[in-house]
Specification:
This protein is an alpha/beta fold. The chain folds into three domains: 125 residues, Rossmann fold; 93 residues; 159 residues, DNA Cyclobutane Dipyrimidine Photolyase, subunit A, domain 3, CATH 1.10.579. The chain has 20 helices and five strands. Strands 3-2-1-4-5 form a five-stranded parallel sheet, with helices on both faces. α10 packs antiparallel against α11, α14 crosses α16 and α15 runs antiparallel to α16. The C terminus is likely disordered.
Length: 442
């Protein structure tokens, strides 16, 4: 049990926009003192890029839910943004709090700089600042090493919360009920089928409205119930869907643990007018290559595309269009509803070859990917309605038809693909130990 000085405790919310499965709130609630208050600091006030409209709607709904829960307990709740005075020490004094507690979090250098500033502000004011680690994804920084197991509230505590319609936990449970009837592992990669096969909860995970550790636990419980009701299918593909989904949730936490600060190594570089034009065309889905253009239009409209399409548009932008990785990552950070630095920026690194250099960058042929992922052409035709005039069989390569309705391709994709492979071959050769160096150490 954490120890607090006498007085009122301020619980600081950042990546944990929930009361359940929140170690800091749980400890503050059980402290012997004069009660507590809760402060939510918006992402933009912590150095994050602007959130998408849908992301803001999800987080604002969670803030309203938190306000209702805390009001029922007689606990004050405030939300501050970049336009407000975010001096945590000043807010502590105003709310008559004598100590602050938060959950440990790793993030980009700019986020950590904000946290250091708040800590220094509190230290100067003589206000104790306690960081606790209740999640397996928080391995570095203040708050201690990775815990053996995540902190989860008792199920009874979770059930006693107000789970109104649209609550992410109810959305998760509804998905888990249907999971055995879905071809989860296969369809999660397929454009068009991905939205019915996957949970679509990544934005809630990113916003902190749902703990990924809670999702793993709920999946285990749902699996146990389903197997008990279907004992003859315990080793069936339907039963395996639970394991595959739980694995994807675990992969998310692994990415956040290892790569949460990768963006800091992707430095911005000066861009030419031609590169800026290419960035705009890539971002708006008008480069002339159907599959990545369709994916970027889906992303711009909905804020979400599946993981395979994320690989495709990133590889296409970095490798074939030769856009600066910082520009590609920055655009995706602004467009993804479920943007998380520890997932988005490592994908840029995997595609530009700076992560896992021994494997090389992921250089994808965008036309081949179109044929593989969208053999019926339904996906590209949906997101690129201009293709309505192109007969079947030509939607992925409309330039082979007499009248191509798309703009001329920015690049010859075949030549760009070969050039990207050649560039990596030269880079890989440069990474190999030189013979004279080997002889020196022989």
């Amino acid at each position: 049990m954490a120890t607090f000085p006498p007085g009122k405790v301020l619980v600081l919310l950042a990546e944990d926009l929930r009361l359940e499965d929140n170690l800091a709130f749980s400890l503050a609630s059980h402290a012997d003192g004069d009660g507590l208050a809760v402060l939510r600091i918006l992402p933009e006030a912590r150095g994050r890029p602007l959130r998408t409209q849908h992301r803001r709607e999800i987080e604002e709904a969670a803030e309203r839910r938190l306000g209702e829960q805390l009001s029922a307990k007689g606990i004050s709740f405030e939300v501050v943004g970049p336009e407000d005075d975010t001096s945590v020490a000043a807010i502590c004094h105003r709310l008559k709090c004598t100590s602050v507690i938060r959950n440990a979090a790793d993030g980009m250098a700019v986020e950590n700089a904000y946290r250091v500033e708040w800590e220094q502000d509190l230290t100067s004011a003589g206000i104790p600042f306690l960081t606790v680690n209740g999640e397996t994804i928080r391995r570095f920084g203040p708050g201690g090493a990775k815990p053996e197991r995540p902190f989860l509230s008792d199920d009874g505590v979770v059930e006693s919360a107000r789970l109104s319609a649209g609550h992410p936990l109810l959305l998760l449970r509804a998905f888990l009920l249907e999971l055995p009837d879905r071809n989860y592992l296969a369809d999660m990669w397929i454009p068009g089928r991905d939205r019915t096969s996957s949970s679509q909860l990544s934005t809630h995970f990113a916003a902190g409205t749902l703990s990924s550790d809670r999702a793993a636990w709920e999946t285990t419980k749902a699996e146990q119930r389903w197997k008990a009701a279907n004992p003859d299918k315990a080793r069936s593909p339907e039963a395996a869907s639970f394991r595959h989904f739980r694995s994807r949730v675990s992969m998310r936490t692994g990415f956040l643990t290892v790569f949460s600060r990768y963006q800091d190594t992707t430095l911005p570089i000066a861009t030419t007018d031609a590169q800026r034009d290419r960035v705009c065309a890539w971002r708006e889905g008008r480069t002339g290559i159907p599959m990545p253009d369709a994916a970027m239009r889906e992303l711009a409209t909905t804020g979400w595309i599946n993981f395979r399409l994320r690989q495709l548009v990133t590889s296409y932008g970095v490798q074939l269009l030769e856009l600066p990785p910082s520009e590609v990552g920055g655009a995706l950070a602004e467009m993804f509803d479920d943007y998380e630095p520890g997932i988005t920026w490592p994908q840029v690194g995997l595609n530009d070859g700076t992560i896992m250099q021994e494997r090389g960058p992921r250089i994808l042929n965008p036309v081949k990917q179109g044929h593989d992922l969208d053999p019926t052409e339904a996906y590209v035709r949906h997101w690129l309605p201009e293709l309505a005039t192109v007969p079947p069989g030509f939607a992925h390569e409309p330039w082979n038809w007499l009248d191509n309705p798309l703009p001329a391709s920015i690049v010859d994709h075949k030549a760009a693909f070969r050039n990207a492979r050649a560039r990596w071959g030269n880079q890989k050769q440069a990474l190999l130990p030189r013979e004279d160096v080997l002889l020196t150490h022989a």
